[in-house]
Amino acid sequence: MRKVLIPKKDYVKELIKIIRVTKDEQKLRNLLSDYHEKDIAEAITFLTETERKHLYRVLGSERIAEIISYFDDAEMYLEELSLEQAAKVISYMDADDALDVLDDLSESKKNEIVSHLDADAQKDVQKLLSYEEDEIGSCMTNNFVCISEELSVREAMSELVRQAGEHDNISTIYVTDTEEKFAGAIDLKDLIIARENTPLQEIVSSSYPYVYEHENISECVEKIADYEEDSIPVLTQDGKIAGILTATDIVELVDDAMGDDYAKLAGLTSEEDLKEPTIVSMKKRLPWLIILLFLGMAVSSVVGIFESVVAVLPIVICFQSLVLDMAGNVGTQSLAVTIRVLVDEDLDTRKKLALLGKEMKIGFLNGASLGVMALVFLGIYIHLFKKYAWMSAFLISGCVGISLVVAMVISGFVGTIIPMFFHKIHIDPAVASGPLITTVNDLVAVITYYGLAMVFLIDIFHI
Amino acid sequence: MRKVLIPKKDYVKELIKIIRVTKDEQKLRNLLSDYHEKDIAEAITFLTETERKHLYRVLGSERIAEIISYFDDAEMYLEELSLEQAAKVISYMDADDALDVLDDLSESKKNEIVSHLDADAQKDVQKLLSYEEDEIGSCMTNNFVCISEELSVREAMSELVRQAGEHDNISTIYVTDTEEKFAGAIDLKDLIIARENTPLQEIVSSSYPYVYEHENISECVEKIADYEEDSIPVLTQDGKIAGILTATDIVELVDDAMGDDYAKLAGLTSEEDLKEPTIVSMKKRLPWLIILLFLGMAVSSVVGIFESVVAVLPIVICFQSLVLDMAGNVGTQSLAVTIRVLVDEDLDTRKKLALLGKEMKIGFLNGASLGVMALVFLGIYIHLFKKYAWMSAFLISGCVGISLVVAMVISGFVGTIIPMFFHKIHIDPAVASGPLITTVNDLVAVITYYGLAMVFLIDIFHI
């Protein structure tokens, strides 16, 4: 049952064939009208320049506008259009998609096209450009239907039909009051099944969720997604509807936000794109590496304090990487859990303390399990391969085991408290926590391990 | 401009007040009808048991059904309902939401409720339960409108109104042929603005994207999201519509898929929940830690080979953690980038080689930058604080610098090739790559660093 027996239709292959074989332009246009824009966009990437230019002519600006937002990198295709046609295509696009495409272009090309846009599109694009990149307003679309709360169900329906030609996000219809302020939303289904004489008020949800245009994306995206609505309105400060976020916008925002957290956990300043040049990728990675290098130097100087231990008992260096790696792993686990919790939920102090306690408890329990394993297996290993007596071998492996327990409890603590601290002082914990935690954990692990070796193995037992 | 000046309405606080103050049940019901189910769900978590039980009576099963899917943990609230009412509530829910709620319950409670469901709901839930957890069929809903392609626009519209009472995902209407097989989809907007005498064929997209019910979620979710549609049909093997995925389902799937990748990068077997018991979290973390412990022991035995180097030149141990950490960081960066690329795109061999080359180039360039910094700063540090002569100090720091370059190039290579390899043999690279990469990088870094120190510092320059 697990295998897909019937292969899926390969629309892209079909499309390439149709485009290459069909000579009649009208026929080609009709055939293409059946296909999804995403598939046409993918098919286009396989065509020659001549084939593409022919296709642009057949498709016309409005259809190209629908297709172009599916390209990963639209620049190359826009370059193949005349400036006038490019501007016409962009004018047909939703403002947020238009902005995405324009952002792929060089600054001069972008300005050139923007100046050729029709007045409406220019206004819409300029509006979105006025937001900071991390403001939710920069992602909204003006593609929505809005009616006055004073209409009857019948009038609302005909107003919807009138607006639906231009605005195709119709599953939620927004309602404004006499001052043009946001007054609620109607589910299209409710409008369709409502009797003509029902007052519109009865089917309006007046406490419909909304966001303000200047809210920070990463702070509100999870909350928006939680409402599980087809669209959410974006309001200006005075309560008017500036635009909406559609469910597909929200998919993209969630994807981006998680991708960013993922990248930051891996020590990248932001998510990377396959097609970006080496130098851009390099710049995204170098900042963290430089910080880590200098923090690493700090750890090195602490290790230096224990040079005397190593000189007396060189075997202890064998297990340094083990203790440090394990502490690092536990810290990363706690960090990752804490960051997701901070994004998803609003924690009060009691819940934060509970989380902290839980992380330390997990650190202790896992540390104890691993500590016992280390004691047993390393003890045997040290006796057999390093030729230490059983007693000494188990003292050394015991030292590793105890270090693991201590280091893992502290790592769990550090991995939880540091992101909480950064969250509290409004610094993105996903960015700032990583290097600090690595360093603090390394320090803790080094001091615990070598300190224990010095006191326990050398001073007390004189191994 | 960055601050939100007007505070958002706190619907949850409003709701708590309304519920506590309003004595008249009919009035309360009317007031609540205006609020979003998510906000009511949140308000409920602040009520006492008596208040909740009163509220359940006022709301009625259908509204509770809409609210209950917003709870993080519905078990406690379902327990407060009688078995009959719980079953009635579940019957009103979309099958996929019902399944989510039922999964929170104990096995016995779950079976008890399922046996009390009405026949339709029972069939729907059993159907979803028949899928594996990682199959896309397990996430679909049967809440969609489906019409025959033989209808006229007028008939289609009245069929829609008839079905819309029960099925509220109406922005895309699915079309079946005479054999009841999936034949395409109609955008509701197109149906609304179509003239009554337009043939339905003209507004049907016959090449609409779809998935098969047994496809693996993680393999198809990004592709589904790429279509940016409000819903995607899930087909049986013989081409019939089994259900649909709505945009809000897709938001959830993307969120889950990314959350899982994120968790795996951090060394967790799956994403953790704040409310799960310590022992469950512990079990999610221990497997990786045990694997890493034993791999770490392997690294330890390799470090052991170089004990003689350390005995002669104890200062080299100071910088072991630095070289290992940096190699590990670079490996993680390459790993994270490669995993996202593998999820997002279909790469041919040429593109894979290009990515591999790019990662190594970045490793080299970043390694060189950091190597030079290490050479300069560590050289000065060793001379000033460790009292080595300038010459020796720079030989030692040079050894660290060269190790950084070599280790970072190889880490970039390993961090890219290992996930590609696991992807090729159909093992989830996000799970399998981490421990292997850490270990291989540690080994490479240890051998490079101590090897270089042995040959370069001790054998050649006799420091």
From TrEMBL, chains A, B:
CDD domains: CBS_pair_Mg_transporter (cd04606). This is Magnesium transporter MgtE. The chain crosses the membrane at residues 286-306, 312-343, 364-384, 390-422, 443-462. It comes from the Bacteria. GO terms for cellular component: plasma membrane. It holds the Pfam family MgtE_N. It is found in: Cell membrane; Membrane. Belongs to the SLC41A transporter family. Residues 140-202, 204-262 form the CBS domain. It is a multi-pass membrane protein. The lineage of its organism: Bacteria, Bacillati, Bacillota, Clostridia, Lachnospirales. Homodimer. Keywords: CBS domain, Cell membrane, Magnesium, Membrane, Metal-binding, Transmembrane, Transmembrane helix, Transport. Acts as a magnesium transporter. PROSITE patterns: CBS. It comes from Roseburia intestinalis L1-82. Its main location: membrane. One of its GO terms (molecular function) is metal ion binding. Signal peptide: none annotated.
